[in-house]
Amino acid sequence: MIVRVLLLLALLLPSMAQRVSAHALEPGFLEVQALGGDEWRVAWRKPQVAGAPMAIDAVLPEGCEPRRGPAPTFDGRAFLAGWIATCPGGLAGGEIHIDGLDKTRTDVLVRYTPEVGDTAQAMRLTAASPGFTIPERLGPGGIFASYFALGVDHILKGIDHLLFVLMLLLLVRDWRKLLGAVTAFTAAHSLSLAAASLGWIVVPAPPVEAIVALSIAFLAAELLHPPDEKKRLTERFPWLVAFAFGLLHGLGFARALLEIGLPEGDVPLALLAFNLGVEAGQILFIATVLALGVALARLYPAARAALAPGAAGLRAVAYGVGTLAAFWVVERVSGFAT
Length: 338
Fold this sequence. Notes:
The protein is an alpha+beta fold. Helices cover 53% and strands 16% of the residues. Strands 1, 2, 3, 5, 6, 8 and 9 form a seven-stranded mixed β-sheet that branches. The protein has a three-stranded antiparallel β-sheet with strand order 4-7-10, with no helix packed on it. Helix 5 packs antiparallel against helix 10.
């Protein structure tokens, strides 16, 4: 029965590829920047859903004019709108609200400066909390909490990053080697995330996303090798493989952070909080997978044999994940090569 379920999963994954993106629920982004006097520059980015803008709308505090922006235009990835708002008395104490967000499964990242010269602040809005009141000042604690939550949210919604970690868990069965591989992956993407976020290295996002997908396909192919053959590269040098691909995944994490921006004056704090959030989400995912594996093995002893090296169930998972990753590679390469 376990083998049949796994085979069914492998058959369904490719058919879902047209509907599932590695980041299926891209966040919205709202930036409100003080210009001086009573004027603020507003930039509003809506995710696209089936070629149309998501049914959400940014609403500025009462007293601002206009409170909503013009019709957005498509830039190839999302729908953008920009306008100048006049808010007599300032933004502090007013509420920014995202209409329609409570009916979605995505979130909106808000970056704002209450006054000229203030440090830019960030806030994450969700379906459960679609609005917030702008405080007089957001201290270090608020910045840390906001960017930490952003890091957790990004990794848990990044299906491609999670699939890479899952393939690593299935490939490296020795817990000592697995610990070393996960540590190397963490160290690598922390380094590249910091370097890209601080502008030390600049790499276009599309090629990075294509190589991230290719890394998943590589591990899936490794998983298909018969166990009686010579040890696979990932088994012989797990930390080296994890470190090399971790550098690339870190560049992918940096893309989300660069879209939001880092608060001036608190860059190290925000960067640390985001990275810790990514690590917390990754540890949560690994713990959940391991706990489910132990529970499944106890409830269905046949599951252990089905996921043993070379078993039909494990091969079915590898084929399913590999096919999905291959689709992403072709999709992403065609996106910047044409």
